[in-house]
# Entry
Amino acid sequence: MQGYTINQLQVGQQASFSKTISESDVYMFAGVTGDVNPAHVNEAYAQTTAFKTRIAHGILSAGLISAVLGTRLPGPGAIYASQTLKFTAPVRIGDTITATATVKEIIPERNRVVMETVCRNQENVVVTTGEAVLLPPKESVDK
# Structure
């Protein structure tokens, strides 16, 4: 993995990470965070909701954004400063989610990069959008 410095980034540059969300991902996330909302962990309850089945925690898709930012672009050594999120569609167990981050703005004097972030499912439906601000590494990190 390579971490990009502010001088190595270009507006429009992008990277992605994909993962199929499993039932165990949802249960492990519930266990780690304590969010055991029945919409996520109880199928009988979830069938009474608008979604008619269990859905993954919205913030789980944000974790995939974090994977892109921390491992691909800017990558290792980058510090995640902020993230806005809008959850636009449910993520169901079995969905394959692709998180993509695109360089939107580079602020060299503050060593900041603004990234547009979006997650889409296997049908190309946008499930999460937002904007992240990161501090790229000061020197290239090669791990």
Remarks:
- The mean pLDDT is 94.
- DSSP finds four helices and seven strands in the chain.
- The domain at 2-21+56-142 is CATH 3.10.129.10 (Thiol Ester Dehydrase; Chain A).
- The longest helix spans residues 58-71.
